What we know:
By secondary structure, the protein is an alpha+beta fold. It is built from 9 helices and 18 strands.
Amino acid sequence: MNTRTDLELAGLVKRYGDALAVAGIDLKIPAGAYCCLLGPSGCGKTSTLRMIAGHEAPSEGGVVLGGREITDLSPAARGTAMMFQSYALFPHLSVLDNVAFSAQMKGVAKAERQARAMELLKLVAMEPYAQRLPAALSGGQQQRVALARALMTQPRVLLLDEPLSALDPFLRIKMRAELQRWHRELGMTFIHVTHSQEEAMALADLVVVMNQGRIEQAGSAREVFEQPATEFVARFIGAHNVIDTPAGKVAVRSDRCELAADGEGLPAVVQAIEYQGAQVLVHLLPPGGGESAEDDAPSAAWVVSLSDDRFHRAPVAPGQALRLRWAPEQAWALAA
């Protein structure tokens, strides 16, 4: 990844009436990065993507691409291309004509635009389907065509709005590998909106975690996972226990926690056992942290991840009283 900044968001704000969707974010994305904007629904990630694309006007702030101010430019003039979640293919046009459409609108000669469209269909392994209509394609195939169509404009930055959310789990994993391959081969900047922690961890070299219109943390996937900046990041990324200590809140990875029948540690009661094949998740509650009138099925306060072999060598059961502990060096201090 190039360390030169390709895309910069400066004080970017988006209001919808009285609602503040994006609350003044600053972000620099290096050239050639695969950046995932990650967060729950309503955190501002899609509004941010649409402002980069030019489909929404910022209320304040600006967008700079390659040193050029593009905040007020039309979507077609800014050097970005957006692949929509719905794919938005023209049902009456063939795959080839869908991909070539933007070049046709610019007056590019038919032979030239179709040759370029076929190159892109080859890149996404859809060349044999060039004459089919979108209705004859699977969801994964339609996605490939939508990607080729977005690339037809030769953008500097490709914007992807939850591109895998409509796919079944098997195809989603397959398409993640394809996105990685296309990113390597094209060498351009990808900005990908998702609410899936797993997706962001698998794809991105820059993960931007958003919450309530603000950036909670931006860093590599490993940095965000290993060193969450805030309680929100630790809880949203998952696989961490957030624990109150005399020195403040800390995050401890669930696979770095230990369970013991007695001795030192926090008292805990096993709430549930979740078998996941290679690992077993042990869900725990503090003593007395059971059901209440307001919460008939409370979430576990903590989770410990044990290998399948380790769990079955010393199994535990719901209702069992245990001690939760961890080595001091495994605790990561969270911002107050």
